[in-house]
Amino acid sequence: MTPQYQLHADHLVRVQADNCEGLEFVPDTFAEVARSDPMDLRHALLQFMIAATPDSKTLNNILSDYDSVLEKMTTSQPGLFAPTGDENVVFVDNVPDTVNPVKAKMAYIQVPTKDGKSTELSLVWKFEVEMQDNWYEASVAMAAPHRIISVVDWASDAYLRPVPKPEEPETTAQYLGYAWGVNDPECGERSVLKQNDDLLASPVGWHSLPYSEDPTYDGVAIKAKSFFRNTTTTWGNNVRSDSLTS
Question: pTM of the predicted model, to two decimals?
Answer without folding.
Answer: 0.58
